[in-house]
Structure formats: C-alpha cells, structure tokens
C-alpha cells in the first residue's frame, strides 16, 4: 500500500509541474494577454481536476491538505477553489456495513439497538470520519461521528511520505527547509485519531468560550464571543456522539444570502472566537476549514464551531509572546517584535528586523474578496523578491562571517498552527467576500493576554522587588531614589527609566528600572537605549562647539562661509551663533514639506537641500523661536561642511570613542542593536487630561494651525491647548492625533535609523551623564567609576552605514546629487584619543568653554538677551538669587521627560531617560529628590511647577523641549 500511494503522489505532482512548465513556454508565443490568460485558465482547470481525483482516491492526509487549499481563495486560482471545495464535506461515504461494525466494536451494540433511529445516509464525510444523524432512546437528536476503518495506518503512512518529500526538497533547496513544520504536523495530526481527546477538547473549548453564560463579568465582557459548540454525550476512541445542531454550511453562500446572513459580521464573530481561543484561553482549534463550521438558521445567525480533533495548547509564555507579536505589529514596535520572536523561538537575523515586520504585517493583513486577492499576492511577491535580493547582497558582503546564514534560523512548531489558523480564517473571509482587518479584531484579546490583572504593570511576571535592575546601590541618594521609582512604578507613572548622577567626577547613582516597552516586558538594563528626542540637541551643539574649539570655525561667522549654497533668499547674514541660539528665523522652514511628506525628516540630503534654499521668517538675531527640527539639520549641515566628515563619523570620533561610550550613544541607530531599544508610549491619563483641556479651549478661543508637530511639542502646554486645531502638521486629524502619533512614528525603525540631529538621539542614561560630566569640567574626561553591568563602553560600537536607506519600502530615494563637501573642508582635524579607566585627556582646550555654551562673558553678544537659550544649550537657573534667576548650569531636555544637565561650579550631573512620555512630573520628582538629598539648588523649571508637572510636557514641552 505504501509504495503505490507514494508513486501515485509523485506521478500527479510531476504531471502538474511539467504542464505548468509547458504553459510558461507556450505563453511566450502568445500574441495577446487574453490568449495567455486562456492558456493558464485551461491549465488550472485540468490540474485542479487531477489533484482532486488523486485526493479522493488517496484519501487520508491528502484530504486534509486539499481542504486547507480549498480555503485559500486569496492564493489559489478559482478553478482549484471550485473543485477542491467539494472536499470540505462531501467525500464519498464509506459502506454502511463498515460503519455499523465500527459502532458495534466501540459501543458493544448495533446502531439499531442503541438508537430509535439511525440515518443510513451519511450527513457528511471527511478525511478521518463520517457523520450520521440519529435519535437516542430518550428522544434526543444526535450526530454520530464514526472513524473510517484503517484510516490510522493510512494517515501515518501519508505523514511518513510527506516527511520524505520535505527532506528531499530541503536537500535540493536548503532555503526551503520545512522540516520543523512537518515535525509539528507529525506530532499533532495523529491526535485527531482519538475521539476521546476530541470530546475532551470540545468540552474545554465550550467552557472557555462560556457560550451559554449570559452573566459575563465586566472585566471579560469586551472579549465575550457569541458562538455555539455542540454538547458531547458519549465518546470512545473511534466513535463520538454529540447533540445535533441544525445549521447551514459555511460554504453554502447562496443559502446564507437567502437567510439574510450578514457575512461580514459572521466572519468577524468567527475571528473573535479564535482570538479568544488563542490569546485568552491558550487552547485553540487548529483546523478552521469551512467544513468545520455551521451557521444557525435563526437570527442572530450564530456560528456553530465543530470538530476539535486537532487542537493546540499554548504555554503562558507562548501565549503572551503571540499577543506581544500582534501588538508590536500593530504599533510598529520593532524591539517588541524581535523580543516576541525570541520568546516564541523564532530566530531571525537581527540586522534585518524591518523584513521581519513586513512578514508579520503580511500574516496579519486584512482579508479581501478572492477575486481581488491576486493583486495583494502580486504585491507581496514583488516585495518578497526585493527582500531576497537585499538578503543576497548582505550575504555577499558577509561571506565567511558568522552572519552568513538563512534569515530564519529556527522555526518553532508552536507558530506553525497559529499561522495556519490565520491563513484558514483569511481563506474563509475571502471565500465569503468579507473584508476583515485581523489586527483590529484580535487586538483586544491580545491586550487581555498581555495586561490581564497586574501581571504586566510590574514587568509581565517580574516581582516588584526585581522591578529595579539589580546593581549595587552606590550611595544613600541612590537607595532613596529607588524607593521613589518603585512607588512611581506601582502608581503606573513609569514604564521604564534610567537615572545616572555624577558628583565630582564619580558616579553616585546608576539605576535602571521597569520594562523596555508597553508590549516588551524585558527589564530595562543600564545599557538599554532610549529615544531621547531633543536631548539630542545638546550633543549636536557640543560637536559644533568642538569644531570652534579646534579653531575650525567661528561662532560669529556667517553660515554661508562654510555652506555657500546657504547664501540665498535672505539668509546671507545668518551666523553659526544665530543657529545655536534659535534666532535664525528658520523655525518653520520645512513646515509645508513635512505636512505633505512627514518622512522627509528621514532624508538627510533632501532636508539639507531644502534648508539651503529656504526663506527665513524674520531677520536673524531679533527673535528667539525654538527650532525643534531645523536646529539639527542646520547644525548638521555646518558640521559636515566644516569637517568634511559624516555627522555620525565625527560624533564617534569626538565623543563616543574618547569618552568610552561605545554602543550606547547614537544619533540614528545602526543595524544590530534593536534588541536593546526601549519603546515609547504615552501616559494615557495625561493625554486624556490634555484632550479635555483642548476641548474646553476650542470653545473659547479662535484656533490657529499648527506648524510641524514636533515644533509645536516645543511650546508650553497652555500654548498648544490654546492653538489646538482640527488640522495637524501632517495634513489631517487634530492636535491630539499628532500627539498620540509621536511614539508610533519614533518607534518605527526607518525613523530610528534616520539622521535627525535635533530629535533622534538614542542613549543610555549613564552614557548621557558621562558626556555631561565631561562638559561640566570644561572637557576633562572623568574616570569610569560605575558598578553597573555590563560595563559602559563594553559593547562594540556598530558604525552607521549611510548607504542604508532608512525610508520605508516603496518610497523613492532622493535623486538629487549629494551636496558638495569640498567647500572649506578641514582635512587636518584630529579627534581626541580614546579613554580607558582613568584619563587626564581633555575634549576642549578653551578655559571659557562654559561661557560659550551659555552665551556668557565674551560670548554674551552672540545671543538674544534675556531668553532661555545660550548657544545650543538650555540655561539652567535656580531662581534663588536676590537679583532674580541665577544661571547655575546648562543642558537639554526632550519631549516626554528625558533630560541631561550639569552644574559646572558644583561638578554635578544628572541624566534621566524615560520611555513613557508624560508632562514631566516623573522627571521633576526625580530631580527634586536628588538635589534635595545632595544639598544642591533645584532648577527653577522643576521647582516652580506643580508637583505632577515638569517642563518636558507631551504635546506642549516648554521652549527647551
């Protein structure tokens, strides 16, 4: 039996294969597209019949394969769907004599002795069993499911044959090794042959879905699904008796239409039931083909779920990982997606996470009617070819390295049936002509899995005491700070945080706490990287000051001296100092461009080109208006023109290597560090409060349009509230939409990888603090004294590759010629030497470098008077002087709470990184505690505000953003 079946399978497969090869050759000679289409249509019809006849003759496992294919209207041509659809419930029945014999053997009596009536005609026949309708002695209408004689041996033989075929394919094409998928099938399919297990599974699903319970708790009400499951009456290994449920087959589209069934609502209800099984219960039917569903004949036309022979159980960890995968996909959160893959056991190349996101998006893509699906698949195929091409190019670059491997190194069994369920559900939707957005329907269930109870608030199972990363406390200040952070964490004000404090060149606080993201429960560690928004400006300004300190540029010199293309449209008199002091008049230079194309911010060369041609709004030096995004590109353009080097290269040479910040100090991240990224989210309670305030103001004030969203984030919250509008900077939505879109945009990999020197720095707090500790002493590099692990600087610093295109797939690269870097290029710049554990090296030689940062002393004439900015840095004031506010330091804050600043006279530094964006209350509380415990003045911007507010507000950060 075994060899004849195998030969039959191979014969049919080769026949189909060679016919399609012949059609591909013949179509080259076809004179029109209609002739080509006719060739393919006829070939599909012939081959569909061949495959169907073979399946009917072979039966066994191949029937299940055919049933699966019959649901893939989104993939297979129509002739296959029409022919294979017959396999869903109408296989030729087995002889009644055989059925009766099985019943007698299993139940000890003939059907005539067991039932008042036993229908001799099968109600339905499937691959493993057939179903007969009957009536019990006590008058119950039931169905009797009877296993085919000898089917067990056939199924096991088919699995063996299929495994052999898979092994041959893997040998011939290593990139198509489906061994893990086949292994999972071999483990799970034989379980369908034991109807006792099916009975247990049915009872468990019915209990989990609680379909008869009308008193659903408030907590679970949003996840309640209205479906029916048959009641089990009796079971043996080969016979199963259930209560009969009258319904219409799901594939009987005409009957559903006649009854007036809303197929869209029907498919959504089925999808919800599977989302419940997967994410809430962790126990799901892995075989949702159309034959396993009925639709009740009376309103509200509820789905009836059948056949629970093939089910899959998920561990708590796997269930949460699958939930995290969906939610990370919905949010565009690459770090959480990679973390989810790791927990599932799916190993991918860490330098190609954007492809992982695209693959995941494809799995969760919306369903569309079958006739429209070929275009969907065509687009996916084109994108897949692009991915393969990029991967092949990557392999060529990495020959001989450990990275020369398949993008997927391991494919875990648990995900095999999960993906199969998604594909089958999509096939159902496509067959019925429904459009289902799976992420939207499944998201509430995934959120329940991830956020049920208090599990996730302290890090998805992390004990409260381990919410703080376990490193030795280095001072009493740090011990008290950790108590504060724990309290803020319990109150849900913190998701993830790092705090590092220097005093007199030594680290006295280096604490990490919380989790990396809303959907990423891995703990924050000292080397985790946070997107710090405008904290980046302090680093960018530092590079310009370093070039000035080296004598390579003058702060009072016109920008056009170094950047000749800049000397147009009234910008001839703008100086480097004007740029640093936010008085260049170019705060809205890219506003209209960003409205039409927000991702322009990811295109370095194009932004520099547009800024060079921009028209200022005011004369330079007459008004200080925060340049939220343009500050970075203006400074970056000057830096590259003067140094002749790429921005990231100079950053690495001047600060990263000399200060020992390797791997924890980036402006635009390189590939390969995604697993250390903290993901941004919003404090929803504060957003709600802001929304209410905006709505109140809308009724009372005339509304003005926004410029760019990030530029408006630089203004006080009361300003943004007053000027909130129904149109945001990206050309749609309202101000709150802009605010809530901020984390989503800056979590995406193409934005994280872009060069945005005003807003895209990724730092650890300890690296940021070390940078300011160096600036606080006028450039003297401090010794490394922290006890945190891994040691600062121990990561290999992955270089940024400008050849990488950070823009999403499908966007055209800028075709303009790269700007000329041969204008006044300084080729003799020498970078500071790298520092080890102790160093006397200096970054700056100017003894009055602090005056330059603050626009004080001899530099005071370079800044607009009585404002909050010096030359690139925010002036930190105490507000304690008799004569008014006293300048005590400098630094820069970012929207949402991250900050870094120092007091040079006290040699004090603090850096705070946060991933839950708020109105600054957390930052304010941390700063107040640290300064109070150390006997230092608290900055006025943190002391004078209400206890729950700080200067770095979402939707309305103060000028220093």
UniProtKB/TrEMBL annotation:
Listed Basic and acidic residues bias regions: 374-401, 798-822
ABC1 atypical kinase-like domain location:
86-338
Q: Which residues form a coiled coil?
A: none
**The protein's name in its UniProt record:** Uncharacterized protein
Q: Which domain of life is it from?
A: Eukaryota
Can you supply one Gene Ontology CC term for this chain's record?
A: endoplasmic reticulum
Cite the Pfam families for this sequence. ABC1 (PF03109), Beta-lactamase (PF00144)
What the entry lists under Gene3D superfamilies is as follows: DD-peptidase/beta-lactamase superfamily
Q: The Beta-lactamase-related domain covers which part of the protein?
A: 484-781
The cross-references to InterPro entries, in alphabetical order and at most eight, read:
ABC1_dom, Beta-lactam-related, Beta-lactam/transpept-like, Kinase-like_dom_sf, Mito_struct-func_regulator
Q: List the residue ranges of the region (Disordered).
A: 374-405, 787-822
